[in-house]
Design brief:
- By secondary structure, the chain is mainly beta.
- The chain has a single domain, classed as P-loop containing nucleotide triphosphate hydrolases (Rossmann fold, 3-Layer(aba) Sandwich).
- The chain has a four-stranded antiparallel sheet, with helices on one face.
- Strand 1 and strand 2 form a beta hairpin.
- The radius of gyration is 12 Å and the shape is globular.
- The N and C termini lie far apart (26 Å).
Length: 76
């Protein structure tokens, strides 16, 4: 990860019971970029963004924000 990459998410999957709300999502956001997430209703946009912020637990993949793996962070 280079210094200009703020968010680096790879193959993120978030499951609720037996249904995957997000499956295999990947994205990178670099310093100075604006990113929009678009998709159909109930496509998992909000769940993906919550996972990127550490507010929703990802079941698979890696999520690095500012060089820190948010999957290992606690909410407290």
């Amino acid at each position: 990860m280079t210094n200009d990459v703020l968010i680096d998410a790879r193959d993120v999957t978030v499951r609720f019971d037996t249904r995957a709300a997000v499956s295999g999502a990947s994205l990178q956001v670099r310093r100075g970029e604006l990113v929009g997430v678009v998709g159909a209703s109930a496509a998992g946009k909000s769940v993906l963004l919550k996972a990127l912020c550490g507010l929703e637990a990802a079941d698979a993949g890696t999520i690095m924000v500012g060089g820190v793996d948010v999957r290992g962070c606690s909410r407290s």
